[in-house]
């Protein structure tokens, strides 16, 4: 069963109705009564609801799909208005407005939210002013069919032993049971960029009752491929290697070594589309974890890629392909060094 289906039923237990049953639903959807299976019309009734003063939510986990209880294949039972192309009926999980409704109904002073767009940004409460004491916030980044590349533009949290007071923690998935991408982190930056292995990432922020700082600002976007590496050695390859890499790809690999260690890269095989100034298919190696960090490259064609050693403990490997050629790509190894 989909996680969203479970959350749908849990929301009923919390007191919520179907979204298309709201008192104001006729402004947002049209019910196609003639297409509903006989005897199921009761599922499409309207309720005299107060709606908590929040907007209608096409993306709510409580919304029926366009073809639910349809008597005829291809004939919708619910049509969004005025734009019938708006998607409805997702069961991926709570929408941002679903979270807001729960917090408002139960009077929760909570700063959590869902970030469903392909790219976006978020920050600690009050940023760039100091964040409040006793905060606990969760941001769930949830996009479709891509990986997530997260980077921090600013970071300043109260420093403490083992970051037991104020901290940020990042999970490679949609819950605190997911693998940890970045364990409790505090103090001042730099904070490494991160690539999730899938289409969800959970960011947790907490502060205690003592002194606060200015907090953080972060942004994310989707990438086609990539990963976050922390092992002391490993291998990075272009997509599908040793087969040809696909067209129109943007890939980011972040390597993070422990404090005091540098990262050494060695190219073992390299063949990309050649172009003057490498403007089509290309590889960049950044001395840092951000796309704006100093870089060597771009590399393309079959030119020799020199061995590379970072000046710090972060490296970002960036690969792009365009819409034309597909070639074998590359394979490189990395190790940590003092």
UniProtKB/TrEMBL annotation:
The entry's active site is 9
Asked if the keyword Iron belongs to this entry, the reply reads no
Which SMART domains does the record associate with it? CUB
**Main subcellular localization, coarse class?**
cytoplasm
Q: Peptidase M12A domain: which residues? A: 1-109
Q: Which GO terms describe its molecular function?
A: metalloendopeptidase activity; serine-type endopeptidase activity; zinc ion binding
Q: What is this protein called?
A: Metalloendopeptidase
Naturally occurring in which organism (per UniProt): Lonchura striata (white-rumped munia)
**Organism placement in taxonomy:** Eukaryota, Metazoa, Chordata, Craniata, Vertebrata
Gene label:
UVS2
């Amino acid at each position: 069963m989909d996680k969203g289906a479970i959350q749908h039923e849990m929301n009923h237990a919390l007191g919520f109705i179907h979204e298309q049953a709201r008192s104001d639903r006729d402004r947002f959807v049209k019910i196609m009564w003639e297409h509903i299976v006989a005897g199921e019309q009761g599922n499409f009734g309207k309720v005299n609801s107060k709606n908590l003063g929040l907007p209608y939510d096409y993306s709510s986990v409580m919304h029926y799909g366009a073809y639910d209880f349809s008597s005829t294949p291809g004939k919708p039972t619910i049509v969004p208005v005025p734009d019938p192309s708006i998607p409805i009926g997702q069961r991926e999980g709570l929408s941002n407005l679903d979270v807001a409704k729960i917090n408002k109904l139960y009077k929760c002073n909570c700063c959590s939210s869902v970030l469903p767009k392909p790219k976006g940004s978020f920050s600690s409460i009050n940023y760039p002013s100091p964040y409040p004491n006793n905060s606990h916030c969760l941001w769930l980044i949830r996009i479709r069919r891509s990986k997530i590349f997260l980077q921090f533009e600013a970071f300043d949290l109260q420093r403490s032993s083992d970051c037991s007071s104020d901290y940020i923690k990042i999970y490679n998935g949609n819950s605190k049971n997911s693998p940890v991408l970045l364990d409790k982190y505090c103090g001042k930056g730099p904070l490494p960029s991160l690539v999730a292995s899938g289409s969800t990432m959970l960011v947790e922020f907490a502060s205690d009752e003592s002194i606060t700082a200015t907090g953080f600002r972060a942004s994310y976007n989707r990438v086609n491929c990539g990963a976050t590496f922390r092992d002391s050695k490993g291998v990075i390859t272009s997509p599908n290697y040793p087969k040809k890499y696909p067209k129109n790809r943007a890939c980011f690999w972040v390597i993070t070594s422990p404090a005091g260690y540098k990262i050494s890269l060695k190219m073992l095989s390299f063949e990309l589309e050649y172009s003057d100034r490498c403007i089509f298919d290309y590889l960049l190696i950044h001395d840092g974890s951000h796309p704006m960090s100093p870089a060597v490259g771009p590399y393309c064609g079959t030119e020799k890629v020199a061995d590379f050693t970072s000046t710090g403990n972060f490296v970002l490997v960036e690969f792009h392909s365009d819409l034309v050629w597909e070639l074998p790509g590359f394979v490189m190894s990395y190790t940590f060094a003092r």
